[in-house]
Amino acid sequence: MKRIGFRRLAVPSTVSFAVACIYLGCIVLLCRSAIKARHKLETTLLDSVSSAGQKTKHDLFLWKLGNKHRSQIVQVDDEATIDDIGAKDAAKYGSNIFNSSQLLEIKLERLEGWQTKFPEDLDMYRQGILDDTTWSSDLEKHTAEIAPWVWHHRGRADILYEQIQSEEPKTRRDALAEMAQLKIPLNFEPRANASFVVLIRNKELKDFLPTISQLEQRFNHKFHYPYLFLNDKPFSQEFMQKVAASTTSNVTFARIPLDHWSMPDFIDPDQALQARKQMGANHVAYGGSLSYRHMCRFNSGFFYKHPLLQNVDWYWRVEPGVDFYCDIDYDPFLFMQRNNKMYSFVVALEEIEETIPTLWEHTLEYMLKNNVTSDWMSYFANRDGDYNLCHFWSNFEIASLRWLRSDAYEAFFKYLDEAKGFFIERWGDAPVHSLAAGMLLNRKQVHLFNDIGYRHEKFARCPDLSNAGLERRCQCPKDIDNFDNSKGSCLPQWKSLASIEWSNRDSKEALRLVRERRRYAEGLESLIATQRRKWYNIFGNF
To answer: I need a labelling partner for 483 at 20 to 30 A (CA). Which of 4, 6, 17, 316 fits?
Structure first.
């Protein structure tokens, strides 16, 4: 077989030497340029860090930023530079340590300033706390009660941001390389005093892991807001380890105080049980569930009282099993803060009427007794004055904790709580938050995040992709049925809503009509029952 060969090109040795020298010179110049660029970035980082000595408001938020706090530093240009610098060095770190297939042991710590030593019998410890009547405040009592079940993991991003402020060049260089490997962009913009809040059970871990993965990819890998996980039961080690390994941000796990997750003394347990049985027999969603009622009451009037949220101003509620369809390349917390927004949502829909038969009536009563007026309460009312069932779906909400902790909101919640509807009926936190916003906030303080794609259960929405940039930022499933335009959506009413004063006269008239319809319905039911007995007697004679 004939061998295929290549003709050898004869080049004089002097020419070869000259070409080699030129190549070598180019390589040297490129290397020097790269070294200068790297040194320039590190010098800029160090100067930026050194020149900013004042700490942010986040220093009050120990569990959020860990034991050492990030200083407030100026913006450094752009995230592409860190990738360029760190790409070569990143190889020494091996595979991503947050890869679930190679899960490392995550270090969980006690919070600084919190109790760290406890007796072996934690149930007895907790009961002793609950039996003690000498506490100076509920906050002090609740802090002591939940302390054994509070665990914290300081996120890798928080550590690396601290390391790039080091005076040691090698520490800075290694931190930059690891940030590149973990795809943590440089972001020195000031952050809001905010947190994700996740009410979740251990058994929901499998549903939550894809959710936090999406949330990190779409938003939080750039902003590194902390997560607070709450549970009425202790979190398992598996849950805490796998969740902490899913983010480079700080995570804290805590138990809910018993006072926040129990039936109050003014509720008759037998009456509440009969109500659950009746609603369950009528196939009302979660009508037979006691735990669901605890959840709704907790989200309506207690989660913002949790000891770990007392120094936090903003929260973003996240639930397991939800999807985020769009990249969020700005900070919604700062948007809310800078534009005087107090409450926000992405989905508005109608509530199940059988769960809230008297909620609207009690709301109108409260408005009348407290002389509450509004510039947009008409959004929730039909033309006949009845509740149209519209509300903002609270499984996604970004809102002000200061507003929820206000005397005005607390007074409204206490009024509803004492009306017993959370247990005798099945009032949800979504209509409670919505009606409270309608009463206590003006129209401009409530915001629709129209550019956020989202799904919870069968309800999904995708933004209008014709808007500039959204087509590039969103990956909505092709078969998605956009609930925004579906029957049962209250978004069209919101978009067409005009500010119309709702006065005491409106509340009084709406309340009169509600009571008149109820009396008519009760009279009609009584008449039907009488007629049924009459017919039963007639047929009984055959």
So the answer is: 316
φ, ψ for residue 96, nearest 5 deg: -60, 125
Q: Taking the CB of residue 533, how many other CB atoms lie within 10 A of it?
A: 10
Identify residue 420 by its one-letter amino acid code: K
Query: Over 70: is that where the pLDDT of 477 sits?
Result: yes
Nearest by Cα to 420 from 522, 267, 310: 267
Choosing from 145, 162, 397, 425, the catalytic residue is 397
Please report, for residues 100, 196, 247, 481, the alpha-carbon distance to residue 210 in angstroms, rounded to integers and kept in the order given. 12, 16, 12, 21
DSSP-assigned letters across all residues of 309-329: GTT--EEEE--TT-EE-B---
**Helical H segments across 282-319, by residue range:** 290-301
**Which residue, among 278, 317, 275, has the nearest Cα to 299 in the 3D structure?**
317
**429-440 helix and 407-418 helix, angle to the nearest 10 degrees:** 130
Q: Assess if residue 175 is contained within a domain.
A: yes
> Residue 247 and residue 526: Cα distance in Å, rounded?
59
Q: Is residue 4 part of a domain?
A: no
397 counts as catalytic: yes
Among residues 428, 430, 485, the alpha carbon closest in space to that of 461 is found at: 485
Q: Quote the CA–CA distance of 105 and 46 in Å, as a whole number.
A: 32
pLDDT in tens, 26-45: 665 655 655 555 555 444 44
Q: How far is CA 433 from CA 200, 309, 401, in A?
A: 20, 18, 12
What is the amino acid identity at position 85? I
Instruction: Name every residue whose Cβ is closer than 8 Å to that of residue 27 and which is 6 or more positions away in sequence.
Output: none
In a domain, 299, yes or no: yes
CA-CA-CA-CA torsion sign (146, 147, 151, 157): positive
What is the domain count for the chain?
A: 1
Distances (CA, A) of 436 to 18, 203, 377: 81, 32, 10
Q: Which residues pair with 446 in a beta bridge?
A: 343
**Residue 152 bridge partners (DSSP):** 109, 252
Domain span holding position 331? 108-504
CB 424 within 8 A of CB 271: yes
| 289 within 8 A of 168, measured Cβ to Cβ | no
Give the amino acid at 6. F
Report the percentage of the chain scoring pLDDT > 70: 77
Cβ contact 161:261 at 8 Å: no
In a domain, 513, yes or no: no
Of 107, 111, 109, 120, which is closest to residue 143 (Cα–Cα)?
111
State whether the Cα torsion 394-397-401-404 is positive or negative: negative
The model's pLDDT over 351-370, given as tens digits with 9 standing for 90+, comes to: 999 999 999 999 999 999 99
Q: The domain spanning residue 449 has which CATH number?
A: 3.90.550.10
Q: How far apart are CA 496 and CA 500, in angstroms?
A: 12
Q: How far is CA 423 from CA 231, 287, 426, 508, in A?
A: 20, 10, 6, 27
Tell me the three state secondary structure of residue 94.
coil
